[in-house]
Amino acid sequence: MPIILYILISIFVLFFVLLFVYTRIVKSTSKYMRNLSGPKPIFPFGNTLELIGGSTVTLNVIMKYLNIHGDIILTHPGPLAWAVVSVDHDFNELLFSSSTHIEKSVQYEFMNNWLGLGLLTSKGSHWRKHRKAITPAFHFSILKDFIAVFDSNGTNLIKRLKGEVGKDSTEISKVVSLYALDVICEATMGVRVNALEQENSEYIKSVKALCSIIVDRIFSPLHPLLYPITWNYYKEKRALKVVHAYVEDVISQRIEEKSKKNLNKDRHKMEEDFGLKRRLAFLDLLLETTIDGQLLSKRDLRDEVNTFMFEGHDTTSTAISFCLLMLATHPEAQEKVIKEQIDIFGSNLKTASPTYNELNEMKYLDLVIKETLRLFPSVPFFGRKLSNDIEFKGNLYPKGLTVMIIPYAFQRNPNIFPNPEEFIPERFQDYNNKFPYAYTPFSAGPRNCIGQKFAMLEMLSTVSKVIRNFKLAPSKPEHKIKIAAETILISANGVRISLENREC
Ligand code: HEM
Questions:
Q1: Whole-angstrom Cα distance, residue 82 to residue 149?
Q2: Does the N terminus or the C terminus of the chain have fewer Cβ atoms within 10 A?
Q3: Phi, psi of 144 (to 5 degrees)
Q4: Which residues form a coiled coil (predicted)?
């Protein structure tokens, strides 16, 4: 028999096997979610064809589906895949508040090579024990000491932005991202990488490369099994080598320092003892952390450091950039912010280094940041995998199902946030938390953001410093942002504003 006939018969058989498997799965799933509406899938692409435009179309497509089909919709991210997208308050409450449905969806596996079993990606008892053990590192009495890190790096940011004064248009998101990297490196590892001045450092370039590879993988139509034949696979391998070597080296140095002298509980005393030029970092606290009486292993330490690096820089930097854009384009809000800053700092307006109490006095700026995070939640969606079947309003949702929660969509719900597209910081003055799961920029429940307070302090400190030094205005010509939902919400064409020296 000619070889071509063999090939044709094999294709024929394979087709029928696939069809058989497909019908079996559809049949066995038919008792589930039968009342749910959603966009019609096209075999074998599911609903992915509409997403081909990439990260700039994702949110628009999801918003369109939600408008047409309701608050909980069934989508098909592939031929044999089901995912539910939810902006239903009660359903989200059920998930957020649950201590059972805490496992992340399959997309988070693309982060595993970098983040390993860090807090963001781990599950089950590993996650529970680590979360419990690491939580004290984010106590406000410890976070207070990071204010100096925000302030000293903030001074470098101001220096860099001074070079932009008087220009019609400045793209701030890239500069703010480098600043946020400096902050998180110093806070997490106690290392000053000076990304603002040396963005070409191998470590910084590799961190950036890993972030973008994760995004590529999440949105890639290729099956994960084919990943090793892609160029990204080799790029990731190279970047991982650099990042892991760098972090492991820092960890080894700290362990050596610690073994020379026992870490003193008093953080300032420790600096005296070690004669350290650096401030205490999260890593120093992780080195003291024990689980079941054992110190964290070197691998645990690396995973947690990498997780803080990933979760703790683009999230804050994108929020700060959007916040500066909102102030530049809403002069009345900017006036209120600066008035508050003058009330707090008086004649020291430009030079003051805010204390913890002074940051907490910035009530109006706090509203501005909250409203920015409502319109532009840094993490626009996150996914969970159901740990067991759920029955909700007449539908059965199967164990293992991916549920995508979309704060970007929910936080624009007009029934909860009237005039949702408008920037109105005052709405949070009397936001009475009637819908506690409607505003979730930091997620909610047991798997909420452990770095929330750190991030709020960093954002208050940074925006306060920028606004005390510069008057912000819209860029010329006017810049229309292009929202893109990567792992982080960004503007694909940058965030442009213009800066003038502040005179008062
Ligand atoms: C504006 C800034 C930030 C925002 C909006 C934000 C938001 C979030 C969200 C939505 C999650 C849940 C993600 C998911 O379920 O997929 C999360 C988790 C997490 N965040 Fe943040 N984050 C911010 C800053 C930070 C910072 C500065 C750190 C560290 C210093 C941090 C560390 C983490 C960690 C470790 C987790 C995983 C927690 C767990 O699962 O136990 N985040 N963050």
A1: 45
A2: N
A3: -50, -40
A4: none
As a whole number of angstroms, the distance between CA 296 and CA 133 comes to 10
DSSP per position, 457-494: HHHHHHHHHHHHHEEEEE-SS-----EEESSSEEETT-
Ligand 1, closest atom to CA 120? 37
C-alpha 361/C-alpha 364 separation (Å) is 9
User: Ligand 1: does its nearest atom lie under 6 Å from the Cβ of 442?
Assistant: yes
Q: Is the CB of 450 under 6 A from ligand 1?
A: yes
CA distance 3 to 236: 39
Tokens for 47, please give them.
């609903």
Rounded to the nearest integer, the mean pLDDT of the chain is 91
pLDDT at 44 (0 to 100): 81
Question: Residue 117 is encoded by which pair of tokens?
Answer: 């079993």
Where are the alpha helices (H) located in 229-286, listed in sequence order? 231-260, 267-274, 282-286
Tens of pLDDT, residue by residue over 226-235, are: 999 999 999 9
CB of residue 455 inside a 6 A radius of ligand 1:
yes
As a whole number of angstroms, the distance between CA 233 and CA 240 comes to 10
One-letter amino acid for residue 230 of the chain = T
Pick the closest to residue 321 from 486, 492, 195, 203 (CA basis): 492
Taking CA atoms only, the protein residue closest to ligand 1 atom 19 is 449
Describe the strand order of the beta sheet including 470-474 as a list of residue ranges: 170-171, 496-501, 470-474
Q: Indicate the helix (H) or strand (E) that contains 82.
A: strand 81-86
DSSP run (H or E) holding 497: strand 496-501
Question: What six digits make up the tokens of 286?
Answer: 């992780």
* Of 92, 86, 91, residue with least CA distance to 74: 86
Q: Tell me, using a 6 A CB cutoff, whether residue 307 lines ligand 1.
A: yes
Give one DSSP letter per residue of 350-402, joined into a string. Answer: TT----HHHHHH-HHHHHHHHHHHHHS-SS--EEEE-SS-EEETTEEE-TT-E
Tokens of 68: 């047409």
Amino acid identity for residue 415 in this structure: N
Tokens representing residue 468 in the block: 């005390």
- Among 158-167, 434-443, 453-462, name the one with the lowest average pLDDT: 434-443
3-state secondary structure 165-192: CCCCCEEHHHHHHHHHHHHHHHHHHCCC
211 annotated to a ligand binding site: no
Smallest CA separation from ligand 1 atom 31, residue: 451
- pTM > 0.90: yes or no: yes
CA distances from 355 to 44, 136, 324 (A): 58, 21, 22
Say how many Å lie between the CA of residue 311 and the centre of ligand 1.
5
ipTM of the complex: 0.99
Cis peptide before 446 (omega within 30 of 0): no
The answer to whether the CB of 193 falls within 8 A of the CB of 156 is: no
